[in-house]
Amino acid sequence: MVLGGVVGVNAFIDQKVASIPRVKLKTAANTDPGSPANFLLIGSDSRAFVQTPEEAQAFGNQASNGITSPQATPGHGEAEDQRRL
Known about the structure:
Order of helices and strands: HEHHE
Number of strands: 2
Distance between the termini: 34 Å
Shape: flat
Structural class: alpha+beta
């Protein structure tokens, strides 16, 4: 019974991960597709998407959040494992 639960949870997690939208990255011309690569993803912490009072309750809003902060996330990708970044 426990094994069945573990298998079911793993299948559910795999399904959720598979539904995450993928982003095609533009790489340098001299990048070898078979080699590992490092990336730096840059964005900002914006609340511009907030439209309703419920969203403002959950995420805050531009007025209450004040100045947004830049976000930088390093990542590393291996050629043989296309899901890791």
